Amino acid sequence: MFLAVLIALAISFLLILVRLINGKTTFDRILAANSIGTIIVLGISVHGFYMGRPEFIDISIVYALINFIGTVAVLKLFDKGTLGDK
Amino acid sequence: MLDISIEIISIISFVAGVFFILTGSIGLIRLPDVFSRIHAAGMIDTAGASFIILGMILQSGFSLITAKLVFIGIFIFFTSPITGHVTANLARKKGVNPVGKTKGKTL
Amino acid sequence: MIGEIIINAFLVTLMLTIAIFIINTRKVISTILLTGTYSLVAALMFVSLDAVDVAFTEASVGAGISTILFLAALSYLPKEEKEEKFNLKHIYAICTCTIVSGLLIWASYDLPLVGQLENPAHQHLAQDFIEGSRNHIGIPNVVTSILASYRGYDTFGETVVIYTAGIAVLVLLHDGVSKISKINKEKK
């Protein structure tokens, strides 16, 4: 059951990777990178259950936070041109 | 009896999550412009992720892992709409126009 | 077992594909995004190899901090890239690299041979760690169990030091940046 979910996640990862590689605008790429982050967060948790050791899903929490911060940082760079208060 | 029903509910929730994730990723490829693709990405982030996390919560029983999974679900559920909103806002600001009936009109 | 092999093979193939696309893309920002994705897949790979501490580091540093660092560096770059001709600076750099690498290779001849039983690294505690870690801690990965449990206090101290250093750097930089921007505004 977990293996089936993992395979589905892998397929959708590949589909989103197509969009990340030949996205038309940069916003498409950012959106695809964010979705890939979500897919990986789910993948790490489901992988933990599949291997029978679900204690290590703290990495998913870390990444769920960092994914959001990274995406907002990219968008801020696009908006203001810098990341600091120049 | 309770075990079997919990198992069935979790399988149903996994199937729903996988359905939403696959639909969202196909939409991310097929839909024509950024604004409609945000809709597809939101589908992956909220519906798909929530259903899969619900399935894992039902599988894990009641322990510390459940709390961690609930945290992940809450983070994803609340940060994804913010990301979508910021992306759409910035795309509009940078002059990306939606495709379709609204073409040529000012939003 | 077969599932594990399939997962690892899939992840390695994916990493290879993403690396090829990183080389092929021409836009810097899509390279940065693809690099973040690459680190993510690497983190998943580390999880599947039971190296959880490395996966933590990869997810936070590789995918998070370095992406933001690359972006901050990108914001200082000019819009157009100029092609640089070969000049004298490159010869200095090549000479320095050759001399330093030669010295390092020469120094490495004094090291004991890799993998020999009489090496000092294999004499003391390593045997206890390798034999006892599964019974003592219950994690198959020895490196993780040493870092997180045998040397737990050490790792904790490191974390405190790095956290303090990070806060100090933030305080220093923030003060300086705000002063500089004030001076610039007054100049304008």
Task: Output the keywords.
heterotrimer, A: 86 residues, mainly alpha, 3 helices, 0% strand, flat, C: 188 residues, 7 helices, 77% helix
Offer a concise description of the structure.
The complex is a heterotrimer of chains A (86), B (107) and C (188). Chain B is elongated, with a radius of gyration of 18 Å. Chain B is mainly alpha-helical and 107 residues long.
SSE inventory with pairings:
The complex is a heterotrimer of chains A (86), B (107) and C (188).
Chain A: H1 2-21, H2 26-51, H3 58-80
Chain B: H1 2-30, H2 34-60, H3 64-93
Helix pairs in contact in B: 1-2, 2-3
Chain C: H1 2-24, H2 28-48, H3 52-76, H4 88-107, H5 126-136, H6 142-150, H7 152-187
Helix pairs in contact in C: 1-2, 2-3, 6-7
Descriptive notes:
- The complex is a heterotrimer of chains A (86), B (107) and C (188).
- With 86 residues, chain A is mainly α.
- Chain A has one domain (2-80).
- Helix content of chain A is 80%, strand content 0%.
- Chain A has helices at 2-21, 26-51, 58-80.
- Chain B contains three helices and no strands.
- Helices cover 80% and strands 0% of the residues of chain B.
- Chain B has helices at 2-30, 34-60, 64-93.
- Chain B has one domain.
- By secondary structure, chain B is mostly helical.
- With 188 residues, chain C is an all-alpha fold.
- Among the domains of chain C are: 1-77, no CATH class; 151-188.
- Chain C is built from seven helices and no strands.
- Chain C has helices at residues 2-24, 28-48, 52-76, 88-107, 126-136, 142-150, 152-187.
- In chain C, α1 packs antiparallel against α2.
- The longest helix of chain C has 36 residues, at 152-187.
- Chain C is extended.
